[in-house]
Known about the structure:
Layout: H1 2-18, E1 25-28, H2 43-54, E2 60-64, E3 68-70, E4 74-77, E5 84-88, E6 91-93, E7 106-114, E8 116-119, E9 123-125, H3 129-134, E10 148-161, E11 164-166, E12 173-176, E13 179-184, E14 187-189, E15 200-203, E16 206-216, E17 222-224, E18 229-238, E19 244-249, E20 258-269, E21 275-279, E22 287-302, E23 306-309, E24 326-340, E25 344-349, E26 357-367, E27 376-380, E28 385-389, E29 397-399
Parallel strand pairs: 1-2, 2-5, 3-6, 4-7, 5-8, 6-9, 7-10, 8-10, 9-11, 10-12, 10-13, 11-14, 12-15, 13-16, 14-16, 15-17, 16-18, 17-19, 18-20, 19-21, 20-22, 21-23, 22-24, 23-25, 24-26, 25-27, 26-28, 27-29
Amino acid sequence: MAMKLSFLAMLLCLLLASTPKAHASVFDVTSATYGAKPGSDVSTALAKAWSDACASPSASKVVVPSGTYKLKEATFRGPCKAPIEMQVQGTLQAPADAGQLTRPDTWVGFQYIDMLTLSGGGTFDGQGALSWNQNDCHKNKNCKPPPVNLRFEFLTNSKVQDITSLNSKFFHIHVFRCNHTTFQQLTITAPDESRNTDGIHIGASTGINITHSKIGTGDDCISIGDDSHKITVTGVTCGPGHGISIGSLGKYKEEKDVTGIIVKNCTLTNTENGVRIKTFPDSPSPSSASGIHYEDIIMVNVSNPILIDQLYCPYTKCEQKPPSKVKINNVSFKNIKGSSFTPLAVKLVCTTGKPCENVELTDIDLTYGGDKGPLTSVCSNVKPTITGVTKALGCATSSLAPLP
């Protein structure tokens, strides 16, 4: 009897092993069902394929095969009934004229989705050159921004990987109200002169990981806004651009705190700034930024390698205003090496109203080979803890009063 049961158990195992595993249902936009063709507008086909895939009770995959397709605009909305993947293998091209979009702030959006994967090695081409020339947001605080290339809102447990965002009209990737979402192996590209083309901007999100990506734009490679928590940036190469930034903070009413930011093992090359925290003066409401840690960073010819700027003003004319109300606390800069494009390699300018506290400079080794003076550093309204830092980089000029 025991031998018979053992034989049946073995037979059952063999049957289970030979049973094909279930695969995700595939919704190919070029199939007869949807009818998309390279060179044509794929908007309708892609919307229908997404709708069918999102309604699938089992895991599904929307596929855009190799080729170049026009895409007027798209919003992919959940919730979906099961995990869903969009695999873009080809190139999707936005209209060159932003005026053709009915949603003026977004070209492609993903909303209210749990367990989304966006992948495929393809390209989202924003064709932004026309918008860069018309965009005056760098000097006009009341401007109307052009559309973002990719906007992710209210995602959970999701992944964006192995895609390229090219020549966005405004921000390349905007992340808002997302939780536990990873961005990896991305390529984000726009010319140095393209205005406001931040690579990835994060706001009001928790548990965001950005890793092993190459970002070169005309603005911040990565910018982190208010109400952001547990954000990790690792293995990112940045340049050209304005660096990896916390902020700007303190511009709007009732902004929420920023906590738990880690930037590690990154390389910045020929950027306007390195690792930066920036807050506006005259903040309408108090807030804080704390638990911010930069470690193992390489700077190559970076203009402002280490920077806290609580007098941030991006506009052409800036009036002297009351101090920032953003409290900066528990910040560390560790093992940061390389070269500065300017002699001022470390600049920590904190607010008079709420001086920075618990700031640490450890193992900072930056060089300057230019002819504009000796390597130097300056601090205002902060007394950092300094370990393994040369005198020139150790805030020899340090005060609890505004810098001239």
